[in-house]
């Protein structure tokens, strides 16, 4: 089940394009959604996708298969919370909640990110869509005490949410 507003839309054109895409083109498109090569290969292995739900189910299945190394590959494609990648419309859109935020709050977010990265060895990953800087900071502080195994499973879930949003967006983009 998805919270996507157009979940009932069948996205036939986009699904047909994914089904017909050469392997290299499909892989490139999927790696824009998630930078884990294993994830992209696993999702591609489920094609053709008869409908939106099948594509999202492929994301769910692929996420469950990822190792810690694969999760690190996936996180490498994400900007630090509070610092969207300049010129990257996806990063800027997903972190819209930090725009115009008080500098003191951004400094706290930076400090908390630094501590988290030192502890876990990777960026703090959260589905930032629709979240404010304050709620992301609260989540970061709440998750900081976790052990690495617990945090890896939370990251897996957050990545799945992000991928679902990105896959839905890909399906909803006008076809050329």
Question: What report would you give on this structure?
Answer:
By secondary structure, this protein is mainly alpha-helical. The chain has two domains: 9-67 and 161-175; 78-145, UraD-like. It has nine helices and no strands. α4 (52-65) runs antiparallel to α9 (148-172). It is globular. Its EC number is 4.1.1.97. Residues 20-168 form the Oxo-4-hydroxy-4-carboxy-5-ureidoimidazoline decarboxylase domain. Pathway: Purine metabolism; urate degradation; (S)-allantoin from urate: step 3/3.
Write a short abstract of this structure.
The chain is mostly helical. The chain is 62% helix and 0% strand.
Labels describing this entry:
176 residues, mainly alpha, UraD-like, 62% helix, disordered N terminus
């Amino acid at each position: 089940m998805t919270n996507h507003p157009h979940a009932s839309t069948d996205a036939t054109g986009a699904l047909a394009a994914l089904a017909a895409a050469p392997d290299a083109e499909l892989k490139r498109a999927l790696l824009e959604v998630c930078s884990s090569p294993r994830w992209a290969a696993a999702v591609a292995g489920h094609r053709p996708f008869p409908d939106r739900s099948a594509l999202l189910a492929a994301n769910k299945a692929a996420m469950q298969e990822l190792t810690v190394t694969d999760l690190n590959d996936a996180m490498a494609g994400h900007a630090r919370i509070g610092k969207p990648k300049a010129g990257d419309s996806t990063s800027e859109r997903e972190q819209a909640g930090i725009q115009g935020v008080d500098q003191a709050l951004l400094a706290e977010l930076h400090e908390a990110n630094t501590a988290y990265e030192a502890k876990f060895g990777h960026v703090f990953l959260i589905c930032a869509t629709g979240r404010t800087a304050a709620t992301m900071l609260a989540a970061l502080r709440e998750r900081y005490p976790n052990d690495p195994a617990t945090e890896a499973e939370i990251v897996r879930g957050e990545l799945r949410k992000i991928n679902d949003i990105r896959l839905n967006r890909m399906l909803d983009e006008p076809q050329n």
